[in-house]
Amino acid sequence: xxxxxxxxxxxxxxxxxxxxxxSPIKSDNFEGVIFDASYRLPFYKKRTKTFTPxxxxxxxxxxxxxxxxxxxxLNNNLHLKFECPQLEVFKEYYRQYFxxxxxxxxRIIYINCFLQPVEDWExxxxxxxxxxxxxxxxxxxxxxxxxxxxxxxxxx
Length: 156
Prior knowledge:
Layout: H1 2-19, E1 23-26, E2 31-34, E3 50-51, H2 55-75, E4 94-101, E5 107-114, E6 135-141, E7 146-152
Parallel strand pairs: 2-4
Antiparallel strand pairs: 1-2, 3-4, 4-5, 5-6, 6-7
């Protein structure tokens, strides 16, 4: 009986680590990984509720991401060459997807993108300083199917 409880305890202790492995997702137009809700980004507030984006949500997002990025840049008077992702190589960006709920309870997918693969990018959040238009992030509202924020890294 004691060994049974030890096994149950061990399984319950390991489950978060086993289930939190990111899921790869790939198509002809992009390559990325979906992170589990248990993965905490360093900038999340303690009370931020998270979720695991579904493959369906990511595929829907990706279906319109390039035009949404272009529209966001134009609507916010961002210079397409210096302040927006490089649209001519859009499908070459590696992507990381993280889910959280905003204050209104809407599902938001945070997308982290970079042109050069970085060691451990498929298992850990990658934070790159500088990089210019080769590194960018966006927040996509799954309810409204719109980008609510987009930022491109600065250049040293």
